[in-house]
Amino acid sequence: MESNLRKEIFDKAFQLHSAGKISEAEVFYKKILDEDSNDSEVLNLVGMCELQQKNYIEAEKYVLKAIDIQKEQYFYETLAHIYFQQKNYKKELKVRLKEEKLFGLTGESAFGIGLAYKNLLDFENSEKYYLKALEFNPKSRDINFNLANLYTLFHIPEKAKEYYLKCLEINPNDRESKYFLALNYFRMKDYDEGLKYFEVRLCRETAIDTEEITYPNLIPNRPIWQGEDISDKVLYTYYEAGFGDMIMFARYIPLIQKRCKKLIIKPQVQLSQLFRENFPEVEVMDYFYDEKDLNFDVHIPFLSIPYVIGLKTADMFVSRKQYLKADNIKVQEYKQKYFNNDKFKIGIKWQGNTYYETDRVINVDAFSGLFNMNNVQVYSAQTFEGAEEFEKLASRYNIVDLSKSFKDFSYTAAAVENLDLIICNDTSLAHLAGAMNKPCVVLLPYNYNWRWHTDLTYCDWYESVKLYLADKNESWNSVMDRVIADINT
């Protein structure tokens, strides 16, 4: 093909490619390859087109051929990205290390190697390459952010804080860094600093936006409570985040109740009856009220309460022993129906909401050892997601399913009151058991939630909760072996 014609076709293809017309661009690239199948630059670009269309096998084929003809650094970058998109991090890392050997390091390639190591859970090598990348570009927000995230995974929140603060030096309005900085302050048990950054959380915004949609004539015309004197005013507070968060922060209801003339709370409907039974002087909503039936002076999302009332770290863990109780009538009904035996009663749950995290899901086989214990009856409290796993246990062991009896959390609480021990993942059941001062073992993944802090030998939130952390490569079965050994001692 004549050079002028090639240039004309190439320019047309590249113009289409740049405009996002991927398949059309590929047609023109392939016209060049019809004439010269060894044009390495075009082979790489066709590979990129296939990658952008998620045709990974074809993409790999074209880029490998390009590399076989000519070893260009950006060809290796394309190949590494193909493997990254496939989540084949071992192959990606191999390509990136080959690139380093051939061409040396750049800030971009060091960052790519660091990310590949991180995805392979090799945090030590990831840290090494992130730090090298930072030497090339110390003002890179992405490198500082990823290094901070890595130190969070390392369980070194002090170092994570350092690099999130560097992100904020680069961009003071970086909301993502503020949010994760808050979580690391929390993990260090520094709520004095953490609470103010926590106000940028997205669930707070979502909660307010939802209320504005539900009550368009009320919310925009009523101020958000900033902590001022509201002793003569009605305060309206509403749910955000998950059930566990609402249960954990319910300890502050008596504190805000003292601050206002009247308190209206809208928890998730599944929590309404439990809250109503425990806070009889508070107006607890079941569902959305019509606007004409809701009257308040100020409002606030529920998780903002500690910040607005000015709680310090030492004040965060009020009512650590107990602040929720089950309804006695329901407790007796459960006792007669499910618990009328003299065995040691253990309730289990293995899965919560997987929308945000899957690390907290425990394989049901891990609980098998419980069924070999003497004089023990095991009960399943697993609801919704994960409930289908119950059959794996029920087909082999004597296990009682409580989940279908749980109309709302007030019924769950009645069942919990009848149990001698709860063993579960990091989920709302753990918070309910802790709030009721019922013995509870919580199994934490290696990358565990901020709220459990760094000293896992002690649970700051609940006196009755004991925490077990899985090591980086430890199976849930192994963690449960440790739990059972402790129960038997």
Quick rundown:
This protein has 489 residues and is α/β, with parallel strands linked by helices.
Weakly predicted, low-confidence segments: none
Q: Give the helix tally.
A: 22
Helix-strand makeup class:
alpha/beta
Would you report the number of β strands?
Answer: 10
Mean pLDDT: 94
Whole-Å distance between the termini? Answer: 82 Å
Percent of residues in helices comes to 40-55%
Say which CATH homologous superfamily of the largest domain is assigned: Glycogen Phosphorylase B
Gyration radius, rounded: 28 Å
CATH top level of the largest domain? Alpha Beta
Q: Sheet with the most strands?
A: 6 strands, parallel
CATH topology of the largest domain: Rossmann fold
How much strand? 5-15%
Structural account:
The chain has 489 residues and is an alpha/beta fold. The protein has 22 helices and ten strands. Helix 19 (390-394) links the parallel strand 6 and strand 7 (399-401). The longest helix has 16 residues, at 3-18. It has helices at 3-18, 22-35, 40-52, 56-69, 73-85, 89-103, 107-119, 123-136, 141-153, 157-170, 175-187, 191-198, 202-214, 243-249, 253-257, 269-278, 305-308, 328-338, 390-394, 409-417, 428-435, 476-488; strands spanning 230-238, 260-266, 283-284, 298-301, 344-349, 376-380, 399-401, 421-425, 440-444, 465-469.
